[in-house]
Specification:
Elements (H helix, E strand, L loop, with lengths): L2 H11 L10 H8 L2 E2 L3 H9 L7 H9 L4 E5 L3 E5 L4 H22 L4 H15 L5 E2 H10 L8 H11 L3 E7 L2 E6 H4 L8 H16 L4 H8 L3 H9 L5 E6 L2 E6 L11 E4 L4 H4 L10 H7 L9 E4 L2 E11 L2 E8 L5 H18 L3 E5 L1
Parallel strand pairs: 12-13
Antiparallel strand pairs: 1-3, 2-3, 4-6, 5-6, 7-8, 9-10, 10-11, 11-12
Length: about 350
Amino acid sequence: MNCNEISTIRLRQQQITSSDFQTARELINWKGAMQAQEFNHAKWAVGLRLANFTEKQVEDAFNRGEILRTHLMRPTWHFVSPEDIYWLVGLSAKQIKSAMKARNRQLELTEEDFKTSQEVMIKALEGNRYLTRDELSEFLNAAGISTKEQRLPHILMEAEIDRVICSGPMKGKKQTYALLEERVPNKIELTTDEALALLARKYFTSHGPATLADFTWWSGLPVSQARKAVALNNNHLLSETINDEIYWFSENHSTIPQPDSAFLLPAFDEYLVSYKNREAAISADHHAKAVSKNGIFWPILVINGKISGMWKKVVKKDSLIVEIDHFRPHSTREKKLVEKAANAYGMYCGQKVSLEFK
């Protein structure tokens, strides 16, 4: 197996070249979690992995609670399925709390503050009442819990980590919070070893071939726990040593040659963000163009598994333009593939798209 084969297999396993699923819930449950830092881009990350899905269909699934959005793992926003949210947040909680402790002290947030704020939020949200961030802030301030100076996001994240709140349906263009026990009344809990084993199996099946370092980065787990998670899957995963690195992957991974392809992947897409070593997808001299120094992952153009440019959408009154900023010249054949990818994005958005190469 070489780098080209790794990128080709990852495209398929990540459900980008073709999808094995019919619904957003099935997809997210299979992947374990999908980074959802930028909500609109995260919706496209789901849509492009489901045949002929539209933005409305993804958002409808989100509004119905078939996919949820919360902080976990590294931590950052992720989509997660109702089946996985309890055990996965539970597995992530200890390291997240440890990472946030120093900043919470700076913000003068105590355990008592978190306890009181969660009591306020439970009372405000109970009865399937969905409130925006600003609306919850009003309830907290009225109860004497200051939300100034970045205290609010820490209060909300702590409540997510304690499995009190999660995402609710959209309220216009604003996101809301809901009580987790009301949004997902059927609580699925796992032992620590069961959770570790399942998370590793989901990751290497949906993201492999990948290394232990990749999994450790993606999951946010301590190395010792990540190593144990892999060891617990000896009967489910295969491995191969490539350039002195051990790569793990599903025993059912696809090795069928894939036709030439181009894809417009969103910001923070799992195809790039979920690996510590990204050499299979992007060359070192282009990495800084696709990923900023402060960790912003820009929307990327992928041709035959390799990142060959970036893209952005420009919305005008009656049109949608996709602008391509390429890293290298593209052949006529490649441009036709990019046009096909742009049309797929237009179908998802419900708009006709025009394509411009810068």
